[in-house]
């Protein structure tokens, strides 16, 4: 299978100059996963079939937590500090509603009712963003919400997260925050919120446990000020310093940048 990537890469190289680097890799993959598409064959005798990285695979962080736990708020700070590209699954779905796309009405009805949109729809929206971006570092907020979401992402996008953040917040606090949010969201009312909390407990917990067992989960106590919570987030990215430093978008004041004041 990996041979296909290498042999096709020369075919696409001349026509792909205007494409983003992610599009080129996804094209090169022709149905392979992101990680597979980031590999090429080497032809040294005795080393046939060995995969060598052609480019680094994207750095992916999943951001989990109940409704109103502060995912979006902390994502803004992570973006500001480390320059990751923020993809909010909820925002992408709301954009479909606003644009009255083919799935817009169905998505609206599910969100109003606190339910989860079919994984195929959400993953395809994420895939489109990943493929068209020139970034190689992503924060995927509010995803995966269910085991079905997680499996669909693996199947369709073919990538694993490097880091999974879980903002752990008591229900009482989440309810208070959502009801005070005032952003005109159709799901920010007590009836929908109760349903969302039930669905979160039933469907997101297994995902949290899955990443805990894989050693990828970082649990953050989401009570306190925004800055106090962010202090817990900062050290999580330290081991990934080298990968993140290469980002064009890193804030010069980031703790990852040496001699920053
Ligand atoms: N640490 C905090 N203390 C108090 N309020 C907060 C804190 N963090 C975020 N908020 C506020 O709580 C509300 C919900 O936060 P946010 O939108 O970041 O949550 P979320 O996890 O993204 O929620 P959702 O899953 O519904 O999108 C917002 O109005 C935000 O300003
Ligand atoms: N993976 C996802 C993410 C979001 N949704 C739907 C259901 C949520 O209640 C709503 C809002 O998401 P949020 O902005 O709170 O992250 O969007 C989904 O079905 N699947
Ligand atoms: Mg949010």
From TrEMBL:
It catalyses: dCMP + ATP = dCDP + ADP; CMP + ATP = CDP + ADP; UMP + ATP = UDP + ADP. Its main location: cytoplasm. Gene3D superfamilies: P-loop containing nucleotide triphosphate hydrolases. Pfam families: ADK. GO terms for molecular function: ATP binding; nucleobase-containing compound kinase activity; phosphotransferase activity, phosphate group as acceptor. Keywords: ATP-binding, Cytoplasm, Kinase, Nucleotide-binding, Nucleus, Pyrimidine biosynthesis, Transferase. One of its GO terms (biological process) is 'de novo' pyrimidine nucleobase biosynthetic process. Binds 1 Mg(2+) ion per monomer. ATP binds at residues 68-73, 181, 224. Its cofactor is Mg(2+). PROSITE patterns: ADENYLATE_KINASE. CMP binds at residue 149. HAMAP family: Adenylate_kinase_Adk, Adenylate_kinase_UMP_CMP_kin. Monomer. NCBIfam families: UMP_CMP_kin_fam. This is UMP-CMP kinase.
């Amino acid at each position: 299978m990996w041979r296909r990537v290498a042999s096709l890469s020369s075919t696409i190289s001349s026509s792909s100059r205007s494409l983003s680097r992610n599009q080129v890799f996804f094209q090169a993959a022709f149905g392979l996963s992101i990680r597979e598409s980031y590999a090429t064959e080497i032809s040294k005798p005795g080393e046939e079939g060995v995969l060598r990285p052609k480019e680094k695979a994207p750095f992916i962080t999943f951001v989990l937590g109940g409704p109103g736990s502060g995912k979006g708020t902390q994502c803004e700070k992570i973006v500001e500090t480390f320059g990751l590209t923020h993809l909010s699954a909820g925002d992408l779905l709301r954009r479909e509603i606003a644009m009255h796309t083919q799935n817009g009405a169905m998505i609206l009805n599910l969100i109003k009712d606190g339910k989860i949109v079919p994984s195929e729809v959400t993953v395809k929206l994420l895939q489109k963003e990943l493929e068209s971006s020139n970034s190689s570092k992503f924060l995927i907020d509010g995803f995966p919400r269910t085991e079905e979401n997680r499996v669909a992402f693996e199947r369709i996008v073919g990538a694993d997260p490097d880091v999974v953040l879980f903002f752990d917040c008591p229900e009482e606090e989440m309810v208070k925050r959502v009801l005070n949010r005032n952003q005109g969201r159709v799901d920010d009312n007590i009836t929908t919120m109760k349903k969302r909390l039930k669905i979160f407990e039933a469907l997101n917990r297994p995902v949290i446990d899955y990443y805990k067992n894989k050693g990828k989960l970082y649990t953050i106590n989401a009570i306190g000020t925004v800055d106090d919570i962010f202090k817990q987030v900062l050290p999580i990215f330290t081991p990934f310093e080298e990968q993140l430093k290469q980002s064009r978008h890193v804030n010069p004041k980031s703790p990852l940048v040496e001699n920053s004041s």
